[in-house]
Write the structure tokens for this entry.
Amino acid sequence: MKFIGLMSGTSVDGIDAALVEVTGKEYNVQIELLATHTGNYPAGLRNRILSVCHGAPLTMADIVELDDEIAISFADVANHLGQADVVASHGQTVYHRPPTNNNLGYSWQLGRGALIAHLTQTPTISDFRAADIAAGGQGAPLVPPVDASLLSDPQRHRCIQNIGGIGNLTYLPPWDRADSPPESIIGWDTGPGNALIDWAVHAFSNGTLTYDHDGNWAAQGNPCQTLIDQWLEQSFFKQPPPKSTGRELFGASYGQRCWQEAQAFDLDQADFLATLTAFTAATIVDSYRQLPRLPDEVLLCGGGSQNGYLRSQLQSRLPDIPILTTDDVGLDSRFKEAIAFAILGYWRWHQHPGNLLTVTGASHPCLLGHIHKVKDHLATEISK
């Protein structure tokens, strides 16, 4: 079957789409990547999404309008790729609350699937996180079972490190994919990925830049290790997995506090960007101390995998471990998340649970996502 996976992450830097031919059963799936496309949000829409992520208050009418505009943007990107059997849309996260001892978690993605189904005239699966959260899970990260299916190696211990707005890892012990995946597959959010770096670049450039291309700006500065050590004392990094996070913690307010603290060290803008980038690397490597063992190799994906300075900071902290990208093993690093949601959609369509309990902490396996079918030119939610 042909699935279109749609993904816009916490960086809000565009909507990635992948048209994927998926075959196989359960975890033994094979893919052929047929086409890819990235669509940019209109500048005004992106700014409104970021404002909501940073806590700006909205009326219900504002929320409805934003929900529709995001869905229309997602549908436009899907239509650019041509016809598929099913669209699997992650939507745009605007709020994520991890579970606590007193409350279930909550994760809110805008871009309603019923409207995407209507605009694409294609059955659409959306709202992938809700079922895992209802079962007591974090609702994140959801990609590790896909990583296991596509990127496990029979001999090597691997870490798949996604660096989007937020970073997350998947630890893959050796697996030949002949049997069910080993229970020792684990994963969690490592902390900030590009979120703080992007915030600082946008602020320092007065809105003319949205990210640090290849880390060139940061490479002009010198990281302050004292500040990095201080920031690593934040309680999230001490929390054992399963765990997840978002801009609610590592957003603009957090970045502003970091900038204020940097004043005591007389850091200029380049020094501060170098420190934020090195801090991101340090949070990733610090997370690896909680693994059963260090990996034989690390495969990067997401926007941060294209940041040369960030990669160099990771390599300096893991000098004996090859730092590669998923491109090096045949999986497009830029579109891996969109590919992953195409597969999660394939599993949902075929009644296969999509969550890993060792990753999210949910109490039981769940079918992830709501299916919206197109009938008589109307999109209606159904149970399949």
